[in-house]
Amino acid sequence: MRRTCSRRELLQLMSIGGVVFSTGLSGCAPEMRETVPKAGDPPRPTPSPAPSPFYFVQVSDTHWGYSGPNNPEADVTLGHAVAAINAVEHKPDFVVFTGDLTHMTSDSAVRRARMKEFKEIVGKLQVPSIRFLPGEHDASLDAGDAYRELFGETHYVFDHGGVHFIALDNVSDASGAIGDAQLDWLKTELAKIDPAAPLVVFAHRPLFPLAPEWEWATKDGDKAIDLLSSHSHVTVFYGHIHQAHHHVTGNIHHHAARSLIFPNIAPGSAPKKAAVPWDPASPDHGIGFRTVDSETGAFAWEDRAADGKRVDSGTDAS
Question: What is the CATH number of the domain that holds 240?
C-alpha cells in the first residue's frame, strides 16, 4: 500500500539563487477519502494517478539587462546559473522562470532585444523543457505584448508526473491584478482537477498581501486564494520579492525564491523597499542556492554559493 504524506513531504524544495529545486512526490501520494455521490450531484473530476518521482528547477527575477551597483556582475550571473544547472548529475525534468526575465525599459525595441538575448542564454539549458512566466518588468508597460511574441501565453496549465501545474499572470495588468477573465479561467481549470490531488501554482507576485505598500501583493489575489482553497494540496512558487520567504494561507503553502540578480531587504524592515547593497566580501551575495529536504519530517536546509560551496545549514522542525 502506498504511504501517504504531509504537504511538506509531498513537495520538497531546493533553491539556487532564485532557483528552486522541487523534488517531491517520491514514494508518497495524497490521502484519498472515499465518499458516496448523492443523486443530482454534478460529475466529479476523475481521480488523478499517484504522482511519480521528479524534480524541477525554479529560477526567478533574472533581470537580464540590469546594470548597476547592486550587482556589478549582472552580465555573467545568468550564464553562471545555466552552467550550474547543466552541471547537476541528475537533470531536472524542467526549468521554470517565474518572471522578471528582463529588466524594465520603456524602449520597446530594447525590451524585445533583451528578451531575445535572455532566451538565447537560457536556451543552453540541457533540460527536456523550459517554461516561462512574465514579471512586471517584462509585461506591465505593454500588457505583455512583447513577452507573448517571444515566449507565448502568459498563463497556462500543464501536467507532469501526476501533478497539475497552473501558471498565473498577475503582472500584465499594470495594477498588479489577475483580472476577472483569468480568474474565470482558473475556476474552470480547477473544476477539472481532483480536489485531493497535488496542485502546484506558479506566479510572479505573491498572491497574499505580503507588503502591499511595496507592491508585494496581488490586487485580487484573495479571489485566487479562495478558488485554490477548495483543493487540499496546493503549493505556490513565486518570485518578485528577491528573497526566500515562506507563508501559509489555510491549506496553501507559498514559497518565494531568491532573485538571480540581487536580494531585497526583508518586508517591513524599513519604510521603503530597497535592494541589499552589494558586498564584495559576501560569500554568495544573497544569490546562491539552497536545498531544503523535508524527507525526515523536518526541513533540513543548506545554503550554497553560486560555485556550489556550502555556506550555511540548519534544520527547522516541521
Answer: 3.60.21.10
